[in-house]
Amino acid sequence: MVGTDNAIFVSDKAKEKVSQLMQDAGIAGDGSYFLRVSVVGGGCSGLSYKLDFDNESKPMDQVFEDNGVKVVTDLKSFLYLVNTELKFSDGLNGKGFYFENPNASRTCGCGDSFAV
User: Fold this and answer.
1) Are 9 and 84 in contact (CB under 8 A)?
2) What is one process in the GO biological process aspect for this record (predicted)?
3) Are 109 and 48 in contact (CB under 8 A)?
4) Interatomic CA distance for residues 41 and 108, integer angstroms
5) Which residue has the higher pLDDT, 92 or 9?
6) Mean pLDDT of 3-18
7) In a domain, 2, yes or no
8) What gap in Å lies between CA 53 and CA 36, rounded to an integer?
9) Which of 31, 33, 67, 68 could form a disulfide with 10 if both were Cys (CB 3.0 to 4.6 A apart)?
């Protein structure tokens, strides 16, 4: 585990939504599942975030736990995600998960992609 100085964080609203989605998927009580966060090429700014539930760790995975949510990312993605916070919005201006990423030099209007 990497120290809390360099981690991925989860807001209270994001935690609630992750818990609800895990319940909907029938994996809420299964401790082997976690939230996998990845950075992939694409989107209008060049890089996009990807979220999935997973239960298989890979050799170079970085593992974090924040606010009761286990978050796993591959090492390459983590370089883009250091000190990023996963948030959730259910407001009128948009609904869904988004990232507050201090490493992004710019983001697109939709908030789904970024550049460094």
Assistant:
1) yes
2) iron-sulfur cluster assembly
3) no
4) 14
5) 9
6) 87
7) no
8) 6
9) 67
Give me the count of residues in the chain: 116
DSSP per residue, 92-105: TTEEEEEEE-TT-S
30 belongs to a structural domain = yes
Q: State how many domains the chain has.
A: 1
DSSP states of 52-85: EEE----TT-EEEEETTEEEEE-HHHHHHHTTEE
Cα separation, 71 vs 11, whole angstroms: 12
Domain that holds residue 43: 8-115
Q: Is the pLDDT of residue 112 over 80?
A: no
CA–CA separation, 4 and 52 (whole Å): 23
Structure-model confidence comparison of residues 88 and 45, the more confident one: 88
Helices (H) and strands (E) in the chain, counts: 2, 9
Contact of 48 with 14, CB cutoff 8 Å: no
Task: Give the single-character DSSP code of 27.
Answer: -
Tell me if 1 is assigned to some domain: no
